[in-house]
Structures are given as structure tokens and as C-alpha cells.
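call fold(seq) -> C-alpha cells
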Amino acid sequence: MMAEYISENYSTLDEFYEKLSYLDEGIKGMQTFADTVYQYYTDRDRLNFDTVKNSISSKKDITLKTITDLVAYKISQSQDDKGVDLNFISAQTFVAEYVSKNFRSKTELEKKLSKLGKDMKGLHAFADIVYKHFVKKDR
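ret:
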């Protein structure tokens, strides 16, 4: 992650070293730099396909996991039912693709969810959107 941050934010290593030289030496300087990198990635909240899919499968993001479970349930109630495991894999792929294509950050996704409703109401509404998007796409 550090190498990625440096390569994305500095054109040369010398430029990076120059920036470091402005920071306090010792622990405070390292802490300041670590905070900068952390904030950079927190603000960006990247939502690419693999990140979303991994967040769902590892259960790191309970919101995305819940949406995926809701989409899998919708699949199970449809003519496209293929059994629990395949329904979940399909739902996971649908959610990861939809989220990564329509939202740049976790913050942007959370704003959309809050507009759809509080708690489970918003999650159900979003799951409906994802499910309908892929049902229409397949037909």
C-alpha cells in the first residue's frame, strides 16, 4: 500500500524524500506520514470489482454482505434459482459489478443507501435495484 501511495502521489523518489524531509524526524514524522496515507485511502474508499467481491466473501463489510444475501434470496425466489451456493455466487458477482460500476467510493454508496431508507429498508431497496438491473440485462 505504501509503494502504491508513493507511486500515485510522487513523480520521483527524490520528490517523496523531499516531502519526508519537511516532516519531524523520528516517531512524530512517521506518525504524520502514516496518518496521511491512512487518510488518503480512507477518503478514496476504492470500490473496484475485486475489492467489493473480497469484502463480501470475507464478510469484512456487513452492509455489502447483507445486500448480497438479499439479492441471493431474490434469485432463489425466481425462475433463475440454481441452489444456495450458485445463487450466492451470482448475487456476489452482481453486487460487486453493480457497486464497482456505479459508485467511486464507500462514502458515495453509503449516501445512496441512506437516501433509499434507514437500516434494512435501504438495504432491501438497494438489493431490489441490483436484482432488477441484472434481470433486465439478461432478458
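The longest helix spans residues 119-138.
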